Amino acid sequence: MTDLQDTDPNEASARAVTLIESLPWLKRFRDQIVVIKYGGNAMVSEELQDAFAADIAYLRYVGVKPVVVHGGGPQISSMLDRLAIPSEFKGGYRVTSTEAISVVRMVLTGQINPQLVSRINAHGPVATGLSGEDAGLFGGRRRGVVIEGIEHDLGRVGDVVQVAPQPVLDQLAAGRIPVVSSIAPDLDRPGHSLNVNADAAASALAVALGAAKLVVLTDVPGLYADWPNRDSLVSHLTSAELRAMMPTLESGMIPKMSACLEAVEGGVETAAIIDGRVPHSVLVEIFTSKGIGTEVVRG
User: Fold this and answer.
1) What is the pLDDT of residues 54-76, one digit of tens each?
2) Could you tell me which residues come within 8 angstroms of residue 66 by beta carbon, excluding any fewer than 6 positions away?
3) Quick one: pLDDT at residue 163?
4) What's the alpha-carbon Rg for the chain, to the nearest Å?
5) Distance CA 32, CA 268 (A)
6) What is the mean pLDDT of the chain?
7) Cβ distance 183 to 130 under 8 Å?
8) Which of 14, 207, 271, 295 is the most buried (most CB within 10 A)?
9) How much is the pLDDT for 288?
10) Beta-carbon contacts of residue 255 (< 8 Å; ≥ 6 apart)
């Protein structure tokens, strides 16, 4: 316990004010499911990994039901380079060969997932790892991408076209934090796996779970209406406004904003993209009135 004689009264009061300011949001999100997509630079910095794990544990202990969906782009790229397996991106999606899909599975389910579970569990034994392949959680179908009117093949890349959320609901009912890796069985080729975009997988899962909020961590402060004009950051917009902007977005932002759009149009109350490079950005987004990044609501 802290020695009260050593506590600055002004500092203690400031902390109390911060806690009280979070009260409306604690009331709003208590017992609600919040899906958080984890990726980007937040995954490669030790400090940011620890901050993210603490945020997720905090949500659980104040009565929110967090569900984490993670990708692993930087780690997958690093492993493919180490193994001298060619890798390229088209339209914001990684082209995934039959050779590369084994590496994707190994990195996502065998490396990143248990590491993240372990970091969260440093705060108490509450997190558990799942794969999109577990108990039919995700079902995928191969997809291509259209660039300037031309369809391009992406190899073993797919969309999540069905979600059976019971494995996640079972873990939530047991008081656990599900941590889900973004890989899916190919519904058209039993026994084969597909690399699915983690933003889209998180969105599909949020819809299937009836989540109150989807939060997508990115490597930028949010959505810019006129990139690269730093003054054009959009803090709030409706799904109709976002749909009108989609054709003008840069390729790397399209999957993230598509995920937000599909989530709110599928019934999720709000979706936000936030800067994962900012420590504790998840708590700032959920428990403050101003939030951080760009929030999308249906309308």
Assistant:
1) 999 999 999 999 999 999 988 99
2) 33, 34, 35, 36, 56, 59, 60, 177
3) 98
4) 19
5) 11
6) 92
7) no
8) 271
9) 86
10) 92, 93, 197, 199, 200
Query: Alpha helix (H) ranges present in the chain?
Result: 9-21, 23-29, 46-61, 73-82, 98-107, 113-121, 166-173, 198-209, 239-245, 254-265, 281-287
DSSP 110: I
Enter the tokens of residue 224: 């810019």
pLDDT(282) > 60: yes
Closest CA to 132 of 159, 156, 151, 111: 159
Q: Is 90 exposed, middle or buried (0-12, 13-18, 19+ CB in 10 A)?
A: middle
CA terminus-to-terminus distance, the chain: 48
**What does the DSSP assignment read for 131-184?**
ETTGGG-EEEEEEEEEETTEEEEEEEEEEEEEE--HHHHHHHHTT-EEEEESEE
DSSP state letter for 186? B
Closest CA to 137 of 49, 51, 69, 225: 69
The DSSP secondary-structure symbol of 266 reads T
**Tell me, what's the pLDDT at 148?**
87
β-pairing, 223-224 vs 236-238, is unpaired
Distance separating alpha carbons of residues 33 and 214, to the nearest angstrom: 9
In this structure, which amino acid lies at residue 14?
A
What angle do the packed helices 113-121 and 46-61 form, to 10 degrees? 60
List residues bridging with 158 in a β-sheet. Answer: 142, 196
Number of residues that this document lists for the chain: 299
Percent of the chain past pLDDT 70, that is, above it, reads: 98
